[in-house]
Every structure is written in C-alpha cells, then in structure tokens.
Amino acid sequence: MQGRVSRPPRRSARTVYTVAPLLLALLAGGGCRRPENGQLQIHFMDVGQGDAAILISPRGETVLFDDGPPSGCGHEIEYLRRLAVSRIDYLVVSHYHLDHIGCTQVVLGTLPLVRFAYDRGDVDARRTRSYSQYISALGPKRRTAQTGTTIVLDTATPNPATIRIVALNGDGLESRDENDRSVVSMIEFGAFRAVMGGDLSGADAGGYTDVEARVAARVGPVDLYKVHHHCSSYSTNQFWLDALQPSVAVISVGNGNSYGHPSPGCLNRLHARAVRTYWTEGGAGPPPTPRLDFVAGDLFVEVAPNASRFTVTHWGGKDRYPIRAAEAGRASQALRLGNGAPRTRPRSPQPKPAITRPSAPDARAIGPCAQGEPVQLQQEGLVFVTPTGKKYHGPHCSYLTPDATAMPLSEALSKGLTPCSRCGGR
Questions:
Q1: Which of 188, 191, 212 is nearest to 63 (CA)?
Q2: Measured between alpha carbons, how far is 280 from 294 in angstroms, rounded to an integer?
Q3: Of 89, 99, 171, 220, whose CB has the highest number of CB atoms within 10 Å?
Q4: Out of 182-186, 211-215, 292-296, 357-361, which region has the weakest mean confidence (pLDDT)?
Q5: Does residue 10 form part of some domain?
Q6: How far apart are CA 365 and CA 360, in angstroms?
Q7: Which helix (H) or strand (E) holds 105?
Q8: For 217-258, what is each residue's pLDDT tens digit?
C-alpha cells in the first residue's frame, strides 16, 4: 500500500496515551525484580532529540550507550528504574554533544557506575560546561577507548556478549567536527551483530567528513543499525549500507526538532534497501511510510542464546527477524578472498518479519521482567482512523489510507468506533 500515516504526538505528562504502552507496561510491572531475563536486551529510550540506549546481558550486566539530552533525564531514569536496573557497569560515550552526554551527572548520580566509562579522549575536545560536568561525573573511572578496546559480558558463561570499538576520532581522517569523531561500537552475541556509531558522518559536505566509507568494511554485515546522526542527510551513505546490509534500523529522534530529522535522503537510502526502521518519535522530516517506518516510542531488541531470530518489541507489537549478519559476513569474506578486492554482496529481498502480539498479559512480552512474574499490560495506546471510517486500525493494517490520523484508543471508543475486522485494531 502506498501513502503515509500521521505520526503520533510527542509524549507529555498530561497526555498519558502518548507514552508507549511498552513503557506503561513497565510502570505497571511491580513484580519486576531483576533486569536480566536470560536474553540479550538492547533498550532504545525515547529521550527526544538525542541518543540513549542500554544493553543488558543475559546475566544482568549493563552497558549504557550515551545518556541523552537534559530534557530527557527524567524519562530515562524512570525507564531504567522500571527495568530494575540498579547500577551501570559500563558507559560508552560516542561523542561530547549535549544530546549524548547531557544526563551523565543525573544518571550516574542515581545509578552508580561500577566499572569504567569509555570515550574518545581529550583530542580537540571543546571545554564546554556540559563536557566539564561529564568529566566530573566520571571521576577516576574514565578511560580513553582505542580501536580494538573490547568489553566482555557474562565471561563465565558459554554465551558471552562483546562490545568492540572499531573506530573513533575520525579513524585517522582530518576533521574537527565533533560528529566525525564519534566512537563506533560493535555488539556481538552469538550470530547476532549490531552497530552503534553515535553521529558519525557519511558525506564530505556541510563541514563534515565521510568517515562511514572508511569504516564500513571493518564493520561488515549487521542485523541492527542504530542510525547515525538521527538520520541526517549527511549520514548513512550508500557505501555504508551496502557493507552493513542491516535488517533493522533504529532512529533516535525528537518531535519538532529544528534539523528536519529524519531527512528524506537518509530515509530514501534505507527504504531502497528494504531496511525497516523504528523511530523513537515522529521527528520533523517526512512522515513515516507505512510498512517501512514505525514510530515506536521506547523499544527494545531481544536475542536468546544461540538463537536464529531476534525480536523488536514496541508499542505496536513484537516483530521477529532472522539473524543473518554472520552468514552474510562469511559470504563477503569469501568474495574478498576470491579476488583480493573488497566487494559487496547483492542484497537479497528483505523477508517480512513475523509479527506477534500477545492476546493476554504475558511476562515474556516485557523483557525486563523475570520469566513467569505477572505483568499487567496497559491497554491504552494509539490507533489509526480514516476520515470517513467507522473502524479503528493498527499501524500495519492494509486498510489504512494515506490520510489516516492517529488518536488515543479511549477517544476512538468514545466516538463509537469499533476495531477493524482484519487487524483487530492492533
């Protein structure tokens, strides 16, 4: 189906329906006691125009990747508390912009840093107030990352998770732009691979330097890509995507941002490769394209040990994707060895994810809760309604039209609307 659906509004303290039901489920999940659930979890928190994500290993070790802007600190702390996170084992900071380090003092003042924080060091670092506060918050636990720096989680188990630094500080290219200096981190767990690269640039324009093209072959195929620079027009270039071949991309973006993120060019490059994107908010660029883009709010990824699939849980349900990065990486290596020159493997058509939605409250649907503990799912959320329709629809429904708009479920019910016979309103 062609066309676009209006983006949901930004969350507000006065309009609870705009908070992702996933988060509301966490808020209601008083039975949660421990953050681990036996799977690798990566939670992308909706902190507005900024980046903040936390990885939780199957045994409960935590790695925080950036910590978002000051405006998002309250939501971030509340989210981490509802995950039952009581400490941060490691902090990995991509670069020193306020929307990536603005909550360091707040987060570490609430959840102590147990081991180390890794960043790009003091090379050409601007001595801003936010940078000084960041340095002060870390104290003696600050470490300068290097290419090859590796964090290993769950070392005493058969299924450790690793975070490996593959590039930083422009990877040797001359640039004074802070985004170009972003730390690029690879996450590996079994066959699953993901990459987190902050605001890395992919264009020799606008004062930026194309670092993506230099680093892409070193990263190789991944299953999950946290989109650089909130999907700006200067990120996510063709060479980068051809090398990575991601199935899923996460765009951390804020409603009404002044930059026009996510940009049409970045989205078009992702769409051309059939990459399915999940946005933390609706941004200020083009509206999401149905079946390709999902405004998800807080969302999290889960991978079981030795799994062949991973899941993305968001306010619209749970989507399952095959893990194929390791296989693609072996194929790419074989091509390079065959003729001595790097080549990219033609991308096969992206399979549609299997989508499952719990029909009843289920602790397993909420990753932070231990298996079997009761969770009362919050049913309030957003639905979509066509201008003349008498039904409400879920975000993936084939009956949606380009002029459909979002509204809270309670409003749809108060108007006498009934669920769609095809999608059930979910």
A1: 188
A2: 9
A3: 99
A4: 357-361
A5: no
A6: 10
A7: helix 104-110
A8: 999 999 999 999 999 999 999 999 999 999 999 999 999 999
